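Journal club prep — side note

Before the paper discussion, L.F. wants everyone to see what a predicted structure for a comparable chain looks like in token form. Sequence:
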Amino acid sequence: MERLFSLGRAAGRTVTGTPAVARQRNGRLIVFVRDVFGEYWYIRQGYPAWEGWRRLGGFGTSSPAAVTHTILTSTGRVPAEVEVYVRGDDGNLHSAQQVGVDSDVWRWTTVAGGIKGDPGAAMRRNGDGVRVFVQGEDDTLYSIVKNRLGYGVWEGADPVPFVGRLSVGVDERGRPIAFVSTGSEIRGVSRSEALGMEWVRRLAVTPHVGSPAVATTTTTPRFLDTTVYVRHFTRSVREQPFTEGRTGAQTDLGGDLSSDPAAFVAADGRRHVFALGGDFRLWARQECRSGDGRIRYANWRLVEGGRPAECAS
């Protein structure tokens, strides 16, 4: 089993749940976690090393969801900063929006009440805002859009029993899509103008524990390249690609996890995987691409106080 590279603990506290990852407008990654007391923290990618942990504020019962999006106005796109969604200790959905790039000031807002589990969010490909997904208290999966006019109307999908948290990506038409685990497969739900919220994907993944992390990219107008990351019962990360409708071979990325993984596609197209290790510290591993097109991963590395994972390792 390969050694992990750790981002450390949030100000020395034990963290729990699943981390969330977003990219600031200047390209720097930012990772969010919740500690065992319910408080939220974040750490920002620096050059060459990661910065220290900072307190986001707020108290909640869910893992965080993070997204960077833009707002489409009559004069053009207004770049918004990172926005984080959590289930508060009052059971409501709350958001914290970064005020300025690289800022440590966050504006908290209550979005809705009565949600269950962890929220998810993704930017809409047309550049007009973000779609947020939550599990309602009736176990239905709901979504809502935030754009320049504020939040829209909640819409629900047909109930499908699922376990754990949801993971959100973007499909080949630029629509946000939420993935959940039923225990034996990964299901995806998105919204179409004609049919509203509908279940549109079934991805067969070998036995796994917990919830999926999904990284989605589009290589053709017709197909969605989806890479699913799950925690195997051996506590390692397993990667399984679905390319142009075909199921690829599963790869063991190693590790000794105490959380579900989080995945993110950076501006350069490389995938990054984050997870809590067996020591409850935050670790990361990034995708590398060689000149001949082969894809591999750098070693797992601890983030806090260390250099980012290098492809030469």
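L.F.'s comment for the group: The two ends are 16 Å apart (CA to CA). Keep this in mind when we get to the figures.
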